[in-house]
Amino acid sequence: MTFTPPAHDDWENPDFAQHWDAVVSAANSSRAEQLDILAAIVERVYLPGTSMLDLGLGSGLVEPLLFARLPQAQIVGVEQSPAMITLAERRLAPFADRCQIVRHDLSEIAGLTLPERTFSIVFSVQTLHHIPHEAQRTVYQFVAQLLPPSGVFLHMERFALDADMFAPMIAPTWDVLESRAETKSGRSADEFLARLNHKSEHAATLEQHLAWLREAGFAATCLHLQLNRALIVGVKPAR
């Protein structure tokens, strides 16, 4: 029987989680490129003997990419959905000695209890737009307090884009990017524009995110941007 995705994301539903896991890469043509960049940065800046924190582990798709580059790295992944955790545990079973999963709701990050580790890198991949803006700002503040000087926060996210104002520019941009993408989404420009409005959730603009990072005490910039998908970075200044 073919699974029909609901109108809204249902992360508690095992069938939805399985569907999302199967289609997420094809649904976002920039994902693979941005993950490659994220992994390359992690390989360069990771400090041996420290740990990394994944805020929004999901089904554990990112961790194998990092372990392939850094076999001895240690990662703690935070995830709320039991359905996603089940998928992550299955995928990450070969790395069980290097990856610990903590169940927690990121919208209440102040109550998050982490294992006693020194975290030199925190990353989050397309997660924070699921929680309200004020909660996203609180996550940034939590990360800033957690990381030591020179610690790095890599945030790969879907950002808010004004589909009405910029539609005449967005449509041809989408057509060019879709035509060149190794993994095609199969969506037309009109479908992409409609999805921008439908999938608003709690997406914030790129400018808002950079401002929130700086407000939390990071030096921040955008490393890669493709329409509404970006990889941004916050670096905690050295003392």
Protein architecture, described:
A seven-stranded mixed beta sheet has the order 3-2-1-4-5-7-6, with helices on both faces. The chain has 239 residues and is an alpha/beta fold. The protein is globular. Helix 1 (14-27) crosses helix 4 and helix 5 crosses helix 8. The protein is built from eight helices and seven strands. The model has no long low-confidence stretch (mean pLDDT 91). The chain folds into two domains: 14-160 and 204-235, Rossmann fold (3-Layer(aba) Sandwich); 161-199, no CATH class. The protein has helices at residues 14-27, 31-45, 63-69, 82-91, 133-146, 163-180, 189-198, 206-216, and strands at residues 51-55, 74-79, 99-103, 119-125, 152-158, 219-226, 229-235.
Q: Tell me the β content.
A: 15-25%
- The strand order across the widest sheet is 3-2-1-4-5-7-6
Distance between the termini: 58 Å
String of helices and strands: HHEHEHEEHEHHHEE
Instruction: Round the Cα radius of gyration to an integer and report it.
Output: 18 Å
CATH class group of the largest domain: Alpha Beta
Helix content: 40-55%
Helical stretch tally: 8
Describe the main β-sheet briefly. Answer: 7 strands, mixed
Count of domain modules: 2
Give the key terms.
seven-stranded mixed beta sheet, 239 residues, alpha/beta
Secondary-structure topology with pairs:
Layout: H1 14-27, H2 31-45, E1 51-55, H3 63-69, E2 74-79, H4 82-91, E3 99-103, E4 119-125, H5 133-146, E5 152-158, H6 163-180, H7 189-198, H8 206-216, E6 219-226, E7 229-235
Parallel strand pairs: 1-2, 1-4, 2-3, 4-5
Antiparallel strand pairs: 5-7, 6-7
Helix pairs in contact: 1-4, 5-8, 6-7
